[in-house]
């Protein structure tokens, strides 16, 4: 099927699917979107105290891990906690592993709402991209889709190829300790860009410990970036949380 025909069939088929199988909220099943407004308000959020650098929940100031590792990432933030009971957990799982790429714009909108009160200014947006083998298998990089939505809405240039993943390490969710996760991502990224003097906003769907963002930031700063900040949709936590 050539591109013109595929585009034409999408115009017909996608609205038809919306009629036959309307999108329903992952929290309450109300039709209209993947996460409705009331459910978004109820989702567990990342709230203080958390580490000033890696956003580790339950930490005042800077956590011991960041004091020890001195990561190159300047700051990590996320609006929500990654808890199995939350619709945001279901949304990230569907985007990441089930091929539901239509979730990306809604997740980008949630990040934009979170960033509305932020005074930060960034020169460009860079996604924490997946390894090419995973992109071929999945058909896309979920972080790149979310980053594209942010770039379009915020008017900040997107440098999708500023960071490349050169090593296909196991998923961070498959490792057991924070030390293992730190070691797991060393040497994962490379950059061929001159990023001299730029303040970069890294974008990801999920932060588990901050090790991936730190590894990416190290490469970007080695390419000349002045500052690297990361925003993700959700932050994982090892601490029990009340829901």
Describe the structure.
The chain is built from nine helices and seven strands, in the order H-H-H-E-E-H-H-E-H-H-E-H-E-E-H-E. Helix 5 crosses helix 7 (142-154). Mean pLDDT is 86; it is low at 1-20. It has helices at 3-20, 37-42, 64-69, 87-97, 103-115, 132-138, 142-154, 178-184, 211-222, and strands at 75-77, 80-81, 124-127, 164-165, 189-190, 199-207, 227-235. The strands form two sheets. Strands 1, 2, 3, 6 and 7 form a five-stranded parallel beta sheet that branches. The chain is globular and about 45 Å long. The chain has 243 residues and is of the alpha/beta class. Helices cover 38% and strands 13% of the residues. The termini are far apart.
Distance linking N and C termini:
48 Å
Question: Would you tell me the structural class of the helices and strands?
Answer: alpha/beta
Number of DSSP helical runs: 9
Please report the total strand number as a whole number.
7
| Gross geometry | globular
Mean pLDDT: 86
Fraction in helix: 25-40%
* Biggest sheet record: 5 strands, parallel
Backbone CA Rg: 18 Å
Order of helices and strands: HHHEEHHEHHEHEEHE
* Low-confidence sequence ranges: 1-20
Strand content: 5-15%
Explain the layout of strands and helices.
Elements: H1 3-20, H2 37-42, H3 64-69, E1 75-77, E2 80-81, H4 87-97, H5 103-115, E3 124-127, H6 132-138, H7 142-154, E4 164-165, H8 178-184, E5 189-190, E6 199-207, H9 211-222, E7 227-235
Parallel strand pairs: 1-7, 2-7, 3-6, 6-7
Antiparallel strand pairs: 4-5
Helix pairs in contact: 5-7
């Amino acid at each position: 099927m050539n591109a013109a025909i595929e585009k034409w069939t999408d115009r017909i088929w996608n609205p038809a699917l919306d009629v036959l199988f309307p999108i329903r909220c992952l929290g309450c099943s109300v039709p209209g979107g993947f996460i409705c407004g009331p459910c978004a308000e109820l989702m567990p959020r990342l709230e203080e105290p958390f580490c000033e650098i890696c956003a580790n929940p339950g930490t005042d100031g800077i956590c011991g891990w960041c004091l020890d590792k001195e990561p190159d990432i300047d700051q990590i933030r996320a609006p929500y906690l990654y808890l199995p009971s939350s619709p945001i957990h279901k949304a990230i799982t569907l985007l990441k592993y089930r091929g539901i790429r239509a979730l990306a714009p809604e997740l980008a909108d949630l990040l934009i709402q979170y960033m509305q009160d932020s005074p930060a200014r960034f020169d460009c947006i860079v996604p924490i991209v997946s390894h090419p083998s995973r992109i071929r298998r999945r058909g896309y990089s979920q972080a790149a889709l979310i980053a594209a939505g942010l770039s379009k809405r915020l008017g900040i240039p997107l440098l999708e190829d500023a960071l490349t993943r050169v090593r296909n390490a196991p998923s961070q969710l498959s490792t057991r300790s924070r030390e293992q996760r730190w070691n797991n991502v060393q040497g994962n990224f490379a950059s061929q860009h001159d990023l001299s003097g730029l303040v970069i906003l890294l974008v990801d769907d999920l932060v588990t410990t901050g090790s991936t963002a730190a590894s990416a930031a190290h490469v970007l700063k080695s390419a000349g970036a002045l500052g690297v900040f990361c925003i993700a949709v959700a932050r994982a936590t090892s601490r029990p949380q009340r829901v």
